[in-house]
């Protein structure tokens, strides 16, 4: 701990809650800026590494929090938030604590920056004193969240200095020259002889060896990657089937996989996370551009051995090429602003150095955003655009965006397919403002796999936001487009339960797509289950309704079909039905919510506000679930 006078910690504490890494990035930038301004001691932690009961002993705390999905807390913040909501905390609990909140969100969503707003209000209700008004970063801004972060930071340093001179002893406007700061990366790399790299169980099967390799590489990456490093299982693709017609501009696939390493276990509504493969051409080009030896064996560790969560003794060396392939996203994610700043130190050509310094400066921020994020420039492309930059491997490992797993809703029932898992995936592709073709790393990689080849796919199972429904629970499902994926599993499972003479409740399902001919996903599957006495049949009290948005001049969406079935929806809700909504996060969840409001209001004769409150009660009771993806 720093100097402790009368029990108060004089350090500047920065806590972040990040889902995809942006909030961690912004928090790291705050640390660097504070150090540049001569702040004597700064401590950076993910909010789940911090003991919330310690908050009253802090002098100054800065929170950087992102909002995910429908206004939700990032996973790392859930425990902290539960602690703050305790009824026994008084209005004096945080008296004397100075705080600031910066949020990262997207104003395209209804609950824009909800987490930052709630946190700001709660801290102030508990007696803490705001150093500066909360800052709200917006993905929609021409230069992303940094458009709000820069001006907010300069206000922060001025106000922080006024509150406490000791935190910025040289005054708010002092900035150390950059050259003194790029001294050492946070990690070090140790090179090993090939003999040291033999795994302890080299006689074990290839699959176990592969799982171990993945675990070794991923446990060495700097920054916390989500979840477990060792895959739950390795999958092999057995089916790659096109669901949409080839010429409609959309490419939607049905994939089937079987487990090859360990047996699989999941419930309907669960999520499968897949580690995507990177193109070998891109990997080779990156290794060559950075002058690395792909055959060398390395271990990666933090420079300060105190770093928590890091077990150095368990690390066996990994082959450099596998390490890059399994942990560093060289060919799909854009590097961060700090990457350009560090590159400027290692550029030997003067014009490149100047351009990189400009990109890293506040004046160059919008131009960098256009060049980098808007175009989705990859690390490899950026390095090729600045050929004079010779960046040490330590810095690359620290700064190249981590290769992340991609999550998909599972579209099968484990009871129906004991050793299989199915996915319904839309293959993502788009054109950048400068007319360059881009495609989603994971979806296009999966689409390129041939079930005849043996490619092992590292996979993890996790709980999504759709809990598996018991057979006796009536269901209202809304799943346009690939949102139908989890509900294919729901219907399969309930259909099997009917065959086994288990008492089941009806399912009312609303599906939406563009055209009957082009993208009516799983058409025969839904229609066969809505036949006489099927799980989606009207005889059973349920039903299958499909909205084709482009089949006629006026667009028809799922919410229009819901209103047509308003009597049936209301009667199922009165029988205790649960609502499940899945699909694109754009406007759909909000449109569907307001359709439910309209239906409840019309059928029960109450006003819109009461109807809205009624649905919120449903949500609190765990009977209104949304799984949305952008």
Proportion of strand residues: 15-25%
Give me the CATH architecture of the largest domain, please: Up-down Bundle
Q: Unreliable stretches, pLDDT < 50, 5 or more residues? A: 1-6, 307-313
Over the alpha carbons, how many angstroms does the gyration radius reach? 27 Å
Number-wise, the strands total 23
Main beta-sheet annotation = 7 strands, mixed
Provide a count of the helices. Answer: 19
CATH superfamily of the largest domain: NADPH-cytochrome p450 Reductase, Chain A, domain 3
Give the number of domains. 3
What does the overall shape look like? globular
Average pLDDT figure? 88
Distance between the termini: 42 Å
Structural class: alpha/beta
Enter the CATH topology name of the largest domain.
Answer: NADPH-cytochrome p450 Reductase, Chain A, domain 3
CATH C-level category of the largest domain: Mainly Alpha
Query: What's the helical proportion of residues?
Result: 25-40%
């Amino acid at each position: 701990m720093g100097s402790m006078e009368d029990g108060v910690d004089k350090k500047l504490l920065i806590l972040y809650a990040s889902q995809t890494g942006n909030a961690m990035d912004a928090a790291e930038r705050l640390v660097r800026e504070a150090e540049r301004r001569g702040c004597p001691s700064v401590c950076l932690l993910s909010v789940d590494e911090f003991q919330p009961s310690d908050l009253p002993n802090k002098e100054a705390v800065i929170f950087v929090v992102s909002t995910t999905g429908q206004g939700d807390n990032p996973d790392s913040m859930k425990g902290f938030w539960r602690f703050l909501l305790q009824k026994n905390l008084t209005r004096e609990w945080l008296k004397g604590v100075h705080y600031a909140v910066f949020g990262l969100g997207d104003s395209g969503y209804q609950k824009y920056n909800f987490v930052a707003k709630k946190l700001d209000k709660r801290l102030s209700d508990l007696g803490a004193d705001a150093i500066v008004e909360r800052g709200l970063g917006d993905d929609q801004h021409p230069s992303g969240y940094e458009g709000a972060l820069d001006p907010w930071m300069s206000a922060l340093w001025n106000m922080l200095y006024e509150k406490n001179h000791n935190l910025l002893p040289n005054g708010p406007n002092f900035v150390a020259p950059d050259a003194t700061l790029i001294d050492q990366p946070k990690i070090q790399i140790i090179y090993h002889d090939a003999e040291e790299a033999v795994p302890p169980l080299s006689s074990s099967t290839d699959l176990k060896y592969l799982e171990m390799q993945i675990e070794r590489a991923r446990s060495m990456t700097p920054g916390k990657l989500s979840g477990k490093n060792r895959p739950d299982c390795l999958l092999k693709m057995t089916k790659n089937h096109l669901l949409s017609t080839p010429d409609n501009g959309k490419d939607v696939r049905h994939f089937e996989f079987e487990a090859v390493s360990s047996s699989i276990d999941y419930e309907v509504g669960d999520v499968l996370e897949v580690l995507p493969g990177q193109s070998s051409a891109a990997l080779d080009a990156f290794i060559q551009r950075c002058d690395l030896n792909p055959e060398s064996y390395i271990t990666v560790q933090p420079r300060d051995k105190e770093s928590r969560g890091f077990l150095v003794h368990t690390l066996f060396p990994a082959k450099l090429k596998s390490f890059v392939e399994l942990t560093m996203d060289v060919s799909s994610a854009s590097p961060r602003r700090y990457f350009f700043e560090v590159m400027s130190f290692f550029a030997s050509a003067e014009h490149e150095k100047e351009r990189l310094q400009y990109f890293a400066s506040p004046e160059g921020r919008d131009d960098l955003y256009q060049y980098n994020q808007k175009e989705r420039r990859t690390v490899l492309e950026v390095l090729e655009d600045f050929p004079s930059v010779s960046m040490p491997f330590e810095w690359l490992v620290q700064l190249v965006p981590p290769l992340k797993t991609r999550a998909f809703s599972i579209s099968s029932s484990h009871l129906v397919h004991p050793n299989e898992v199915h996915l319904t995936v839309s293959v993502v592709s788009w054109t950048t403002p400068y007319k360059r073709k881009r495609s989603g790393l994971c979806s296009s990689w999966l689409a390129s796999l041939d079930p005849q080849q043996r490619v092992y796919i590292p996979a993890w199972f996790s709980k999504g936001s759709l809990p598996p429904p018991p057979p006796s629970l009536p269901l209202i499902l809304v799943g346009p487009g690939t949102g139908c994926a989890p509900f294919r599993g729901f219907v399969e499972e309930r259909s099997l339960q009917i065959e086994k003479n288990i008492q089941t409740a009806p399912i009312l399902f609303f599906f939406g797509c563009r055209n009957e001919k082009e993208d009516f996903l799983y058409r025969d599957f839904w229609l066969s289950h809505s036949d006489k006495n099927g799980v989606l049949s009207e005889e059973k009290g349920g039903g299958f309704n499909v909205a084709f948005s482009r089949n006629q001049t006026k667009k028809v969406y799922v919410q229009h079909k819901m209103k047509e079935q308003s009597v049936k929806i209301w009667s199922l809700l009165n029988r205790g039905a649960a609502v499940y909504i899945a699909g694109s996060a754009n406007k759909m969840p909000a449109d569907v919510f307001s359709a439910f409001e309209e239906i409840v209001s019309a059928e029960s004769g109450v006003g819109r506000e009461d109807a809205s409150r009624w649905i919120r009660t449903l949500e609190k009771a765990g009977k209104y679930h949304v799984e949305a993806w952008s």
